Amino acid sequence: MRVLTVANSFPPVGYMGGAEVSNYHTCRGLIQGGVDCSVLVLNNRVSEMVNVWYELDGIPVHRMTHRLARHALTDVFDPWIYRVTRAELSRLKPDL
What we know:
Number of strands: 4
Order of helices and strands: EHEEEHH
Radius of gyration: 14 Å
């Protein structure tokens, strides 16, 4: 089974609140159980563009960020995030 989680932040970079910590532990548990689990981190509230791949404790992470002028519409729908997410879904073909 393939699982893709999508997050606004993920360790070790950025804000680490309950959702980020929970996502990390969920992914680790799934991987330990034999599930192919990866994380897509998308954030449009940053000062620089980033497109990096890394692995954290066996969890593959793809972090993509971009600078975006803040508008009410892009807080609801960001076309860049939509395109990136569709591309990753096509590439990874997750079951969940």
